[in-house]
Amino acid sequence: MDREIPKEERRKAQQRRLVKLGCVVIGVIAVIAILLSMLGKGVNRADINIATVDRGTIETSVNATGKVVPAFEEIINSPISTRIVEVYCRAGDSVHEGTPLLRLDLMSAETDVNNQADQRTMKQVEVENQRLDDHTAISNLEMQIKVKEMAVSRLAVEVENERRLDSLGSGTGDQVRQAELAYNTGRLELEQLRQQLDNETKTRAGRMRMAELELNILEKNLYEKQRTLDQARICSPRSAILTYINNQIGQQVGQGERVAVISDLSHFKIEGEIADGYSDRVKPGSHVVVRIGREKLQGQVTNVTPLSKNGVINFIVQMDQDDHPRLRSGLKTDVYVMSDIHDDAMRLPVGPYFKGPGVYELFVEEDGQLVKHSVRLGDSNYDYVEVVEGLKPGDKVVTTDMSEYKTSNKLKLK
Which helix (H) or strand (E) holds 268? Predict the structure, then answer.
């Protein structure tokens, strides 16, 4: 005869069924999680780049940034403070040497030049008058000296005559003495005239040199003002491209203010910037590779600024082929300054993973898996980076950026 199962037993049996069901569900969830985890840690071979470590020569370099600029660029400044009256050209025009670019108001400058020219003419007349006056005065003194020399000669003859008469008894001692006194007085007067001529010659020569110096200063000032006036007629100093011009007619421009820029857009150079920590590796004459897209252009450093500004130093690169069609003014470029050569070095092709010398966590292919290795990398160039330790020749290394897998030590390679 059937009997009713107690409620307590039914409740316990139900609990056991629920526990078993829960265990099954938890197991299924765990299996699914493990499968999902395993699937999530795999990468497709087609999605990554794998390179092989080899041995070879590395010409190491330091990376810099660069900007393409015209090999020749000249800034034309206003030589005077004035205003713009007319503009003859536009930015982008090809101009030849002597081509007028714009016209400035030169009335004040021309008046100044004319006044200076008049002052020079007045000074020239003054110098010429002084020269004639000096010639007349010196000539008069020379004539007086000649007359006095003749008088002294006559007095000398009279002294000889008086002495001869006195020796014959026809003269007296007083007459001899009077003749000698007149002769000596004449000699002194002649010496005085000669000294006066010498002093007058020197004095007038000094005044003439001073007048000529003043005339020379006026001529130099006039030349400078005339040159400034000629420069104020703004013309192109050579054949080039007009890259900038102030076309605001009527605008006031100050002395030294930029009004135009001409550039040679057929030849270019590179203005480079690099952290001052690499200043010892960037020297005039250093070989440089400039990368523009897939193009690699050669050049060399021609000038390095001696001072650091905001932690960087600037340098100029002269291109071997400065008219290459890929060069465009204002274009940003990658610049590699070659600094050293390492022979028979372990090397690895550069890639997004490389940020500079140091220790990296790189994935290496092993038995169909990618296993993380600690690798020390050294110097690099635009093609290779030196492997210092952590790898050996023949290792296949992932060169793609794997930062999203930085928490994984192994990855399945699909």
Answer: strand 258-275
* Token pair listed for 210: 């001073």
Output the CA–CA distances (angstroms, integers) from residue 154 to 31, 49, 158, 258, 288, in the order listed: 151, 124, 6, 81, 96
What pLDDT score was predicted for residue 41? 59
Cα(162)–Cα(171) distance, integer angstroms: 7
Mean pLDDT of 24-41: 61
Cα(254)–Cα(229) distance, integer angstroms: 15
Average the pLDDT over 289-314 and give the result. 87
Query: In terms of C-beta density within 10 A (0-12 exposed, 13-18 middle, 19 or more buried), how is residue 363 classed?
Result: buried
What are the E-state strand segments in 350-393? Answer: 358-366, 369-380, 384-389
> In the structure encoding, which two tokens stand for residue 203, read together?
């004095």
Q: How many angstroms separate the CA atoms of 298 and 318, rounded?
A: 9
Alpha-carbon gap, residue 292 to 220, rounded angstroms: 52
Query: What pTM was computed for the model?
Result: 0.52
Q: First vs last Cα of the chain: how many Å apart?
A: 66
Q: Which amino acid is at 106?
A: L
Q: Which two tokens stand for residue 234?
A: 């703004």
Q: What are phi and psi of 157, to 5 degrees?
A: -65, -40
| Helices 173-232, 107-168: inter-axial angle, 10-degree rounding | 170
